[in-house]
Structures are given as structure tokens and as C-alpha cells.
């Protein structure tokens, strides 16, 4: 289980280990490009882009394995564009693969 999942949607690692994270973001009825970053302690680790101008819905997804220390923080940041409907069509998930 992930403790300290707050209203700001920040994951804080409960222990040192290897973690798997993935995210899936959908832009709806939006003709602009979006860029979403997975942030690790204020630094971008990976990004996903959606920028097709001729569709009403488009998804941007990515995933990563990370070595985290106890209390490292991860969250999604919308770097470019905007999400009509906010984050309600999006997911962010992760799990501990191997404790260290």
C-alpha cells in the first residue's frame, strides 16, 4: 500500500527499493499539444506527448522502473497545454517491485 497519498497527488516512497510507475493521460476535444512529465523530487524523469490536431481524443502514456530512497516524491506535472476536464480521464499508478 502507498502511504501519504495526499490531496496534491504526490506519492512518497515508504521505503527504499525498486518501483514501477506508469501513467496514462487523455486529452479530450483539445487541438493543442500536451506534455506530461513524471517528476521525481522536483526533476522530470520521463515525458509523454499527445499532439494530433485532427482527433477529439488522444492518449499519452509512459512507464519507468526507478530506484527510490525512503521519502522520495513522485507526481505528474502538466508541462505544456491543458487538459479539458482536468485529470479525470487520467491514471497514475505504481508499485514496489523489490525492496532494498
Automatic annotation (TrEMBL):
Residues 1-100 form the C1q domain. It comes from Cyprinus carpio carpio. This is Cerebellin 2a precursor. It holds the Pfam family C1q. The keyword Signal applies. Its main location: secreted. SMART domains: C1Q. PANTHER family: CEREBELLIN-2 (PTHR22923:SF50), CEREBELLIN-RELATED (PTHR22923). It is found in: Secreted. GO terms for cellular component: extracellular region; synapse. The keyword Protein biosynthesis does not apply. InterPro entries: C1q_dom, Cerebellin_Synaptic_Org, Tumour_necrosis_fac-like_dom. One of its GO terms (biological process) is maintenance of synapse structure. It comes from the Eukaryota. Keywords: Secreted, Signal. Coiled coil: none annotated.
Amino acid at each position: 500500500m502507498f502511504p501519504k497519498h495526499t490531496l496534491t497527488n504526490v506519492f512518497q516512497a515508504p521505503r527504499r527499493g525498486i518501483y514501477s510507475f506508469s501513467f496514462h493521460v487523455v486529452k479530450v476535444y483539445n487541438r493543442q499539444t500536451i506534455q506530461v512529465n513524471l517528476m521525481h523530487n522536483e526533476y522530470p524523469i520521463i515525458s509523454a506527448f499527445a499532439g494530433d490536431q485532427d482527433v477529439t481524443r488522444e492518449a499519452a502514456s509512459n512507464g519507468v522502473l526507478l530506484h527510490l530512497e525512503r521519502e522520495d516524491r513522485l507526481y505528474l506535472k502538466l508541462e505544456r497545454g491543458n487538459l479539458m476536464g482536468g485529470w479525470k480521464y487520467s491514471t497514475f499508478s505504481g508499485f514496489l517491485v523489490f525492496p532494498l
